[in-house]
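input
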Amino acid sequence: MSRELESPVEFALVGAGPAATSLAGALAHGPGRLGPVVGVSYRVASRLANSLGIGTPARDTAALRNTELILFHAPLQQMKILADQFEHAGINWSGKNLIFVDCDSSPMERAPMSNASFAWITKCPIPGRLAVGGSGTARVAAIRLASAHDRRPLIVPATARSAFQAAMLLGGAALTPLIDSVAHILRGTGMLDKVASQTAVALFTATIQAYARSGRQSWEWHVHEPDIDTLESHLNSLQPAESRVLRELLLLGFERFQRHSESAEALRSSLAPELPPE
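output
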């Protein structure tokens, strides 16, 4: 780590949209001192600096020439505009550390900005947790900034960002319809709405707690073979959408835990379409 990144340094913020109330705004009040604030226009930069209560609005991108560490937070469309401005700004990007906070860095990943070191910080669906990735000195600086808000940020390899975000999606937003589906099925059995929702939440909570204690061994069929006829009866009692999801999850379990290949094959075979008569 460079001496400059070990001690509090001046850094810049390039922003648009609700940057002041975003994670980038919180990081701007962290270690170091916020200097130039740059936007797609001076008006945007001034409004952002005023909202933050710190930093100096810059009239043009030349304010970044002497700043090594630069935070970014902007919607994609504004990021494209900023990238076009920076491309012709006459800035030497070599040696600069660019940290993208909850935003897409792809518009900046072209010459001459690509000569800089890139990193990113993002909020996780896990309350209070941040994830950090990137390479080089930018990654070091990003970890330092994130650590002021999350003592142990999740460090993601530079090549694994998409996979990490997919995992957060699978365990977060993608799970919500599954929880709601369980509640919906329970309502169909005659449960009141509130009771059905509470039961669904309790079921998922118990499953998660069991996994936290025992890992893969908490799976119901870790040892014992499932009864395929019973599983098929359960599947046939559901609407097509829920039945399809449940079948795929059962098959995923057999594959993930490498258990009961014969049961998995029987479940797959029952899904095969019937051939029309000749």
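quick obs: The domain at 3-171 is CATH 3.40.50.720 (Rossmann fold).
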